[in-house]
Amino acid sequence: MLSTILLQGSVLETGSTGFMLVATSLVMLMTPGLAMFYGGLATKRNILGIMIQSFVSLGWTTVLWVLFGYSLCFSGGDGGIIGNFDKAFLSGISIDTLWAGNGKIPEFVFIAYQMMFAIITPALITGAFANRVTFKAYMIFLTFWQILVYYPFVHMIWGGGLLAHWGVIDFAGGIVVHATAGFAALASVLYVGARVDKNSTPNSIPLVAIGSGLLWFGWYGFNAGSEVAVDKITSLAFINTDIAASFATIAWLVVEWSREKKPKFVGLLTGSIAGLATITPCAGFVPIWASPLIGIAAGLVCYLAVRFKNKMQWDDALDVWGVHGIGGVLGTILLGVFASKAINASGADGLIFGSGSFFFKEVVAVVAAAAYAFGFTYLMLIIINLITPVRVSEEEEKDGLDNSLLGERAYDEGAL
């Protein structure tokens, strides 16, 4: 039995609260992990330029979240597109306030947990336009993309808004996080254009491996923590996450090995992220036997998406669209196939359990989210470019963003 404390007539579960504090910390760690993953994949002259875009979100997104972000996502607007300002500046929330969603944890813990999702989602996009976007334009992008893309979808699905009322579910962010970020990344690539040197190679594959390991580790908090309690669904989400990621890793390795005639470490690591992104919407809603199938599909489909991107000559530098965008869409569609109310009563029955309508809703929702994120992002970049240049000059790009924009270097080569 979980230890409990009576608080304002409700029962606070100390076990669930403790677990959610750990889960929140794990998701926070994913943003530095992402910075390392992207930093290792970037060229030697652009390591800090890509890493700062992740780390600045830790600070600035927190400011926005406390001011009004949490309120727009999780207050008011029942059945609507966006919330209201009732909880702006965390108004009306005290140390004794329990989260109304289950009455088991302090609302402060829920606020912090959801804030970590808000921090990492726009940071995912940055890998697509590595080496060629000004920091000032990125800060404007970071601000308004959250307000006008991320916050509405959080509210519509997790905040009791329009899509939730329609019957759309998303356990940990296939639509809310990965589909929106991935297709925003594609719009960014098409607007900003290709790098001057598209054949640039990763500067540090070991750093990519460290970042990948931190992302995988943090993803247990991302997915299992999305149950917002400690129960049987928490354990299901945890093991589904690991199984899908593992099967995707091997699927990507095998298919790339068969084509390239050599096993590729970066490919293996990328496959793991594809599996993690794809299982995200499904983790707490599907039976355990579905997770290997979801993982294999993730490894194969995301690999093919990256090859298609290369064929189309879209300069998505770090494959954000192919891994996160396609992974999020694929995972949401497969949720519509494999979801089972026998596994999670708060979920739904998917296509193979007799519910074609639920499958249809998931497909429509994820396609609409991807289309909106793509269209809005492209339009927003046009508007930002009227205020300040979005793309760096060719000279700055050749010099590298670390030196030209930041005046810093990742490594003091003279001391080596």
Give a short synopsis of this structure:
This protein has 416 residues and is mainly α. Helix content is 66%, strand content 2%. It has one domain: Ammonium transporter fold, CATH 1.10.3430.10.
Strand content: under 5%
Order of helices and strands: EEHHHHHHHHHHHHHH
What is the level 1 CATH name? Mainly Alpha
Q: Determine the N-to-C terminus distance.
A: 57 Å
Q: Into how many domains do the coordinates divide?
A: 1
Order of adjacent strands in the largest pleated sheet = 1-2
The structure class reads mainly alpha
Radius of gyration: 21 Å
Question: What is the CATH T-level topology?
Answer: Ammonium transporter fold
Residue share in helices? 55-70%
Poorly predicted runs of 5 or more residues: none
CATH superfamily: Ammonium transporter AmtB like domains
Total beta-strand segments: 2
Shape: globular
* Average pLDDT taken over every residue: 95
Q: Please state the second-level CATH architecture.
A: Orthogonal Bundle
Largest sheet: 2 strands, antiparallel
Tally of helical runs: 14
Describe this structure in words.
The protein is mainly alpha-helical and 416 residues long. It has one domain: Ammonium transporter AmtB like domains (Ammonium transporter fold), CATH 1.10.3430. It has helices at 14-41, 47-74, 107-125, 135-158, 162-166, 174-192, 205-224, 232-260, 265-279, 290-312, 320-338, 356-387, 394-399, 401-406, and strands at 4-7, 10-13. The protein has a two-stranded antiparallel sheet with strand order 1-2. Helix 6 packs antiparallel against helix 11 (320-338) and helix 9 crosses helix 10. The chain starts with a strand and ends in a 10-residue tail after the last helix. The model has no long low-confidence stretch (mean pLDDT 95).
